[in-house]
Structure formats: C-alpha cells, structure tokens
Amino acid sequence: MARRKDSPQKAAMREMMRDYLKNNDISIKDGTDVNSIMRDMMSVILEGALDEELDEELGYSKYDYRNKETDNSRNGHSSKTMHTSYGDMDVAIPRDRNGDYEPQLIKNIRIP
User: Rounded CA gap, 84 and 111, in Å?
Assistant: First the structure.
C-alpha cells in the first residue's frame, strides 16, 4: 500500500529524521531503540517550547536583550526528570533570575 502524501511539515520531519539517523550512525533494531529516540526527540521539543514560554514570560527573546523592558532575565537551566511511557527523560528547565517563572507546559503536560 502506498504512503499517503505527507504534509510539508511531516515531509520535513521525515527528512530531518533520516538525516539524524544517518549522520549519527543510528540503526533501529527494536522497540527499545525507538523509545530511546522518542525520549531524545521529546526532550528537545519540550526544552525548545519551554525556552519559548520563558521568552513570553520575560517579554523578549534570548538574543534580543536590547528590547528588554524588565529587570528580570534568564538564569540558566535546572534539570527535571519526567517519567514517561518511553522511560525516564531528563529535561532542562529554564530559570529566570527573579524566580518568577513557573513552567506551565510541564505542569499541564501528560506524556503517556
């Protein structure tokens, strides 16, 4: 059976994964390998979304500090372990200097 036509986003993701597997000499032999890759992908996606969430909280993006209108700023990351059906996953949670940032995404997300 032929594969349905991918959306442009899915086609781009398919190409990115093909390159990732090839460039990192990764072969998938079983479900454990798939789970490991899924954990890595999910942590990268979550960390990017959390960085965007902090951008919104602070009102400026990471490298746009010239447009900063607050005395608060980024202050590194802390590690949090999330327990998922893919196994335990370490996620770098961004911090702000004033300690005001409370990540809503992690609070509201449930990964099966």
Answer: 6
Residues 105, 46 contacting (CB under 8 angstroms)? yes
* pLDDT for res 3: 67
Q: Report the DSSP beta bridge partners of residue 92.
A: 79
DSSP state of 67: G
Whether residue 4 has pLDDT greater than 80: no
User: Which amino acid is located at 44 in the chain?
Assistant: V
Output 12 or 69, whichever has higher pLDDT: 12
* Contact call for residues 93 and 80 (beta carbons, < 8 A): yes
- Residue pLDDT, tens place only, 82-112: 888 888 899 999 999 999 999 998 876 666 5
Report d(CA 61, CA 59) in Å as an integer. 7
Instruction: Please name the amino acid found at residue 98.
Output: N
- Range list of H helices, the chain: 8-23, 31-58, 104-108
